[in-house]
Amino acid sequence: MSKKKKNNIEEINNIFKKLSKIKDGAKKLSAEEIRKKSELINEIAIKYKPLVMSIAYKYRASPFYEDLIQEGMIALMRHIEKFDKNMSNDFSFYAKKRIMTNMRRYSDKNSSADGSGMESDNEISTAHESDPEYMFYKKEIKRIVDGLPDKLKSVIYMRFGLDDKNNTQTLNEIGDELGITRERVRQIQNKALSILKKRFTEQQIVNL
């Protein structure tokens, strides 16, 4: 193993240790602890983004290749939080299996959607309304999303289930409702996420 790779593994393990301390602490986290937790999850996600890209590579010919990468990142973020280092030291193996499963399900369930390719399968992770951490995230995210132009805000609300019913919608469903193409919905979504990422970073709330 190269020195660079070894140092990278040690760095990731240290981040997981910090994350475990927050997760293993008080059941109800403070706003500061929630922000710190999000930052640590994001640090790990950045380290493992190449893993998502390598798994998605087999779908590179798909017109929805970027959608698959996004679904892979959603799965990665979800399982970083679920990972228990006391059970296993190999997060790469743990994450790879789950990202592959998510992408395969995405493909299998939607390969015939609209006769032209894959469609998102509402695999976006949502927490239960009774979870105080989820309520914090949702309140803060909605506050910033509400500052977007109306069309961008509408797409994000529908795509990520920010309404009171937590209903997530596929790109095709949003397109049908707004009277625009699936590809146009994806473009609007990506533009909105780019703006939100900048605003979240500036306000140090959460880094998507």
Produce a short descriptive summary:
This protein is mainly α and 208 residues long.
User: Radius of gyration, Cα only, in angstroms?
Assistant: 18 Å
Strand content: under 5%
Contiguous low-pLDDT stretches (5 residues minimum) are 113-131, 204-208
Envelope shape: globular
Distance from N terminus to C terminus (CA atoms, Å) equals: 31 Å
Number of strands: 0
- Broad structural category: mainly alpha
How much helix is in the residues? 55-70%
Q: How many helices does DSSP assign? A: 8
- SSE succession: HHHHHHHH
The number of domains is 2
Major beta-sheet overview: none
Overall pLDDT: 75
Question: Could you please describe the fold and organization of this structure?
Answer:
Helix content is 67%, strand content 0%. It is mostly helical and 208 residues long. It has two domains: 125 residues, no CATH class; 83 residues, Arc Repressor Mutant, subunit A (Orthogonal Bundle), CATH 1.10.10.10. Helix 1 crosses helix 2 and helix 7 crosses helix 8. The longest helix has 26 residues.
Key descriptive features of the protein:
208 residues, mainly alpha, Arc Repressor Mutant, subunit A, 2 domains, globular, disordered C terminus
Topology at a glance:
Blueprint: H1 3-23, H2 31-56, H3 65-82, H4 91-110, H5 132-145, H6 150-160, H7 171-178, H8 182-203
